[in-house]
Amino acid sequence: MAQNYTKVSKFLSLVLRHHPELAGIQLDPDGGWAEVEPLLRGLAAAGRPLTREELSELVAADEKGRYVFSEDGRRIRACQGHSVAVEMHYEPVTPPPVLYHGTTARSLGLILNQGLRPMSRQYVHLSGDLDTARLVGGRRRGETVILELDAAAMAADGLLFYRADNGVWLTKAVPPQYLTIWQEPVGEG
């Protein structure tokens, strides 16, 4: 790719999740889809030109699987993380017994008091494994803290979970009673 992959990917994420107007496009409120050709024209007009092939490479190379093409390849969307009003049509699914969320020590007091909230997004994002939670938490500024949530109890209490196309677990909110601070197991020896 001729451009800096990280910068282009971040701008694409910004456009497909939060500010489609930056590329002169609108997201379909039914699924969050954007037509590829107008998106490419809008990216070029915003000073971030991509060819169709480069866009396909960017989508395929994205380690988090942030984007997906429609079956016919004419549309693209972000898998989750939208702050704009789009209906993703996720079906509720049974979560694993435990899920994780990476955050920072400075946010911990508020989270333990109020729970996890989606803030500007539509859902709280959760990880099915510790490594992903560590990675997400490590991208935030400050000391990383991993929260463990009792997803089985939440589901038993009627709270719903969804799974995005890229495997990220989603829920509307996590009340504080389902959260604990994950502690590294003490080694035997």
Q: Mind telling me which CATH architecture of the largest domain this is?
A: Alpha-Beta Barrel
Q: Give the number of domains.
A: 2
- What fraction strand? 15-25%
Radius of gyration: 18 Å
Task: Please trace the helix and strand order, writing H or E for each element.
Answer: HEHHEEEHEHEHEEE
Q: What is the fold named in CATH at topology level of the largest domain? A: ADP-ribosylation fold
Computed structural class: alpha+beta
Oligomeric state: single chain
Number of strands: 9
Give your account of this protein's structure.
- A hairpin with a 5-residue loop joins strand 2 (67-69) and strand 3.
- 26% of the residues are buried.
- Helices cover 31% and strands 18% of the residues.
- The model has no long low-confidence stretch (mean pLDDT 90).
- The protein has helices at residues 5-17, 36-45, 52-61, 105-114, 130-138, 151-156, and strands at residues 34-35, 67-69, 75-78, 98-104, 124-126, 144-150, 162-163, 169-171, 179-181.
- The termini are far apart.
- The chain is globular and about 50 Å long.
- The chain contains six helices and nine strands; from the N terminus they run αβααβββαβαβαβββ.
- The strands form three sheets. A three-stranded antiparallel beta sheet has the order 1-3-2. A three-stranded antiparallel beta sheet has the order 4-6-9.
